Amino acid sequence: MVPWLGPDDPFPPVERALGATSGAPGLLAASADLLPSRLIDAYRRGIFPWYSDGQPVLWWSPDPRMILATGEFKVSPSLKKTLKRVLREDRWEVRVDCEFAAVMRACAQAPRRGQRGTWITAEIIDAYSSLHRVGDAHSIETWLDGERVGGLYGVSFGKMFFGESMFADVTDASKIALAALVGHLRRHEVELIDCQQNTAHLASLGGREIARKAFITHVKSAVAASPIPWRFDKTVLADLVAPSLTSAP
């Protein structure tokens, strides 16, 4: 039985989430509210919301957990070529927190293979925008000729980044934003990006699954660290095209 959380009820231990043989592996709890305070508490515990319109707020902590270790980000030869062009040409920009809510709306409209509709509802946008206003959620955006053409958003506490969603209106625009994020996080010794669910796209970029226990242990330590700055531009991409850094074979 998945517990229903009242306004003042704490999250149950993540070990109580439904198991692999259930119809909803990783489902931990449900609630009627998506208050910013609840959202902050969830992320600090390695829990995230994921639900559709018409459903209660569903809270998840899957086992295993998909992550991208920043030191394992794969830069393919074609992506490296793209990043070099972005660095070289003034028409390309990487902006941070310029149009956060617009990035969320673009992510909501992005087509997803095998999915109908979106989990990025108006309620989700309002809640994460509240976190953005206090500096706990961020957007990394790819701009071309003065237009936003791709990006991603997520939540950050201490030395932990929880990725949420990305979109691209031109080829590789979301990968450029992700590469810039990885470059920035590496500079500040952030080891992991939470990717939540396993996808082939994330695996192609170096994502992999780890046991929930290991993930939660890392999160507890990382979120307790001092917060990192959130001002950077496309120059962080230079770190990823240097010959000495890991790239895909």
Automatic annotation (TrEMBL):
Localization of this protein: Cytoplasm
Pfam families reported in the protein's UniProt record? Leu_Phe_trans (PF03588)
- Catalysed reactions, semicolon-separated: N-terminal L-arginyl-[protein] + L-leucyl-tRNA(Leu) = N-terminal L-leucyl-L-arginyl-[protein] + tRNA(Leu) + H(+); N-terminal L-lysyl-[protein] + L-leucyl-tRNA(Leu) = N-terminal L-leucyl-L-lysyl-[protein] + tRNA(Leu) + H(+); L-phenylalanyl-tRNA(Phe) + an N-terminal L-alpha-aminoacyl-[protein] = an N-terminal L-phenylalanyl-L-alpha-aminoacyl-[protein] + tRNA(Phe)
Kindly give the InterPro entries that the UniProt entry links to this protein: Acyl_CoA_acyltransferase, Leu/Phe-tRNA_Trfase, Leu/Phe-tRNA_Trfase_C, Leu/Phe-tRNA_Trfase_N
* Enzyme class per UniProt: transferase
GO CC terms, sorted: cytoplasm
Top-level taxonomic group: Bacteria
The GO annotation for biological process reads: protein catabolic process
The UniProt record lists the EC number as 2.3.2.6
Query: Membrane-crossing residues?
Result: none
Gene Ontology MF terms: leucyl-tRNA--protein transferase activity
- Keywords linked to the UniProt accession: Acyltransferase, Cytoplasm, Transferase
Q: Which HAMAP family match?
A: Leu_Phe_trans
Q: Which PANTHER family match?
A: LEUCYL/PHENYLALANYL-TRNA--PROTEIN TRANSFERASE (PTHR30098), LEUCYL_PHENYLALANYL-TRNA--PROTEIN TRANSFERASE (PTHR30098:SF2)
The UniProt similarity line reads:
Belongs to the L/F-transferase family.
Biological role: Functions in the N-end rule pathway of protein degradation where it conjugates Leu, Phe and, less efficiently, Met from aminoacyl-tRNAs to the N-termini of proteins containing an N-terminal arginine or lysine.
Entry protein name: Leucyl/phenylalanyl-tRNA--protein transferase
What's the encoding gene here? aat
